[in-house]
């Protein structure tokens, strides 16, 4: 599963961007209720990539939200990547949760005019027979996204069995995504899944992409409005030689 949780702010109407904007700075009483609801949702999955998570600041009541969700959803393995550290005000992070022990986790800083975007690679299984998951949250600007996807494309080449998931901030038919598919073995999704905004989805900006060696059994949008994005989930099948829990 890939899910942009918007630091546990349950925006379910457009007006909430205005009326709940203070929650991006100050703590709020619904924070832990929302986190608990998210924990119940993600507990059904084996591996979850999270975007817009707070690593422990005033607005999250100094709780690392990745760690909190890992503990409450039953994930023994988790990793928090802080990409924009604003001290006590905010800890903008990505997070990877897993029920399998990864062999390797690598943080990358993504290129762009403004710092603060990152990618997290988590590898499962032996190196020659492994599954590599890349978790990303791309920039809002087209030029920066192109640079960031070029960066990812170079690293994907080392892994025949790979997934790239996260908030891409662009649709699969955008020029930068067309370029990504041309430079890698990532497959164009068969369905145009709408994930944003959660209350009336009209945009296809959250994706789970796989290389051709990964068999996709099912992919779907999960209709749970716990953020301004809807989560996207995928079930995959791997060749017998790849043991992600071994």
Overall helicity:
10-25%
Based on Cα principal axes, name the global outline.
globular
Q: Give the name of the CATH architecture.
A: 4-Layer Sandwich
Give me the side-by-side strand order of the main sheet: 5-6-7-8-9
Instruction: Characterize the biggest β-sheet.
Output: 5 strands, mixed
Number of DSSP strand runs: 11
CATH-assigned homologous superfamily: Endonuclease/exonuclease/phosphatase
CA radius of gyration? 17 Å
What structural category arises from helix and sheet content?
alpha+beta
Word description of this protein:
This protein has 246 residues and is of the alpha+beta class. The protein has one domain: Endonuclease/exonuclease/phosphatase (Deoxyribonuclease I, Chain A), CATH 3.60.10.10. Helices cover 20% and strands 31% of the residues. It contains five helices and eleven strands. It has helices at residues 16-19, 31-42, 65-73, 142-156, 175-183; strands at residues 2-4, 47-54, 77-85, 91-98, 104-109, 118-126, 129-137, 162-167, 206-210, 215-221, 232-237. The strands form three sheets. A five-stranded mixed β-sheet has the order 5-6-7-8-9, with no helix packed on it. Strand 6 and strand 7 form a beta hairpin. Helix 2 (31-42) crosses helix 3 (65-73) and helix 4 (142-156) packs parallel to helix 5 (175-183). The longest helix is centred in the middle third of the chain and has 15 residues, at 142-156. The radius of gyration is 17 Å and the shape is globular. The two termini are 21 Å apart.
């Amino acid at each position: 599963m890939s899910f942009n949780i918007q630091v546990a702010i349950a925006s379910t109407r457009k007006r909430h961007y205005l009326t709940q904007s203070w929650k991006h700075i100050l703590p709020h009483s619904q924070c832990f209720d929302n986190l608990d609801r998210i924990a119940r949702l993600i507990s059904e999955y084996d591996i979850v990539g999270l975007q817009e998570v707070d690593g422990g600041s005033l607005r999250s009541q100094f709780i690392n939200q990745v760690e909190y969700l890992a503990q409450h959803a039953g994930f023994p393995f988790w990793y928090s990547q802080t990409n924009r550290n604003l001290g006590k005000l905010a800890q903008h992070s990505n997070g990877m949760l897993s029920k399998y022990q990864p062999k390797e986790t690598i943080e990358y800083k993504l290129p762009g005019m403004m710092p603060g975007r990152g990618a997290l690679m988590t590898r499962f299984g032996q190196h020659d027979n492994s599954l590599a998951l890349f978790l990303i949250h791309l920039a809002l600007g087209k030029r920066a996204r192109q640079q960031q996807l070029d960066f990812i494309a170079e690293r994907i080449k080392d892994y025949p069995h790979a997934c790239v998931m996260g908030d891409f901030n662009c649709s699969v038919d955008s020029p930068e995504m067309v370029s990504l598919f041309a430079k890698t073995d990532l497959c164009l999704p068969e369905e145009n899944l709408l994930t944003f905004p959660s209350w009336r989805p009209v945009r296809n900006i959250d994706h789970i992409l796989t290389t051709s060696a990964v068999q996709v059994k099912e992919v779907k949008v999960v209709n749970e409005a716990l953020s301004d994005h809807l989560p996207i989930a995928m079930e995959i099948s791997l060749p017998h030689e790849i043991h992600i829990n071994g």
